[in-house]
Amino acid sequence: MLRKTALRVTRPRVAVLSAVREHPHADTDSIVGVVRRELPKVSRQAVYDVLRALTEAGLLRRIQPMGSVARYEARVGDNHHHLACRSCGAIVDVDCAVGAAPCLAASDAHGFTIDEAEVIYWGLCSSCSPDPAAEQNS
Q1: Which is more confidently placed, 98 or 58?
Q2: Alpha-carbon distance 102 to 137, whole Å?
Q3: How far apart, in Å, do the first and last CA atoms of the chain sit?
């Protein structure tokens, strides 16, 4: 994958790409921790640089839900969206709501040629949602 994008294959790049694939939606600190298990001497700045290079090359996608730090994922190029929990911050992928990219048509494109839509659905995950049965018994 790295060679196809004209990026040199280096141990930090391979380690970061692997970490993001194994831990989708991980933040930078989490990725640094995973990479350092394999490459203990890698610097935080090196991981930041690799994340930027892989994102610019289209091998990773950077998302930043409102109120959250940047997170990275290896699922790219399919215009999928995300579900985000307001309580615990969990993020999961959800396929495009309707049709192919772009799956949403703007009410007024203001002259833009739209080629991607980014949607984040907000709510509570099943772990954070109140138990309906417990609420009924209260």
Answers
A1: 58
A2: 45
A3: 55
30-37, long-range: CB < 8 A, 24+ apart: 31/72
CA-nearest of 77, 65, 60 to 22 is 60
- The answer to whether 47 and 84 are in contact (CB under 8 A) is no
Question: What is the full DSSP assignment across the chain?
Answer: -TGGGT----HHHHHHHHHHHHSTTEEHHHHHHHHHHH-TT--HHHHHHHHHHHHHTTSSEEE--TTS--EEES--SS--EEEEETTT--EEEE--SSSSSS-S--S--TT--------EEEE--TTTS--HHHHHT-
- Whether the CB-CB separation of 42 and 35 falls below 8 Å is answered with yes
Q: What is the pLDDT of residues 15-72, one digit of tens each?
A: 999 999 999 999 999 999 999 999 999 999 999 999 999 999 999 999 998 888 999 9
Query: Measured at the alpha carbon of residue 22, what is the angle toward residues 20 and 23, in degrees to the nearest 5?
Result: 65
Q: What is the CA radius of gyration of the chain?
A: 18
pTM for the predicted model, two decimal places? 0.81
DSSP code string of 26-41: EEHHHHHHHHHHH-TT
Q: Residue type for 111, please? A: G
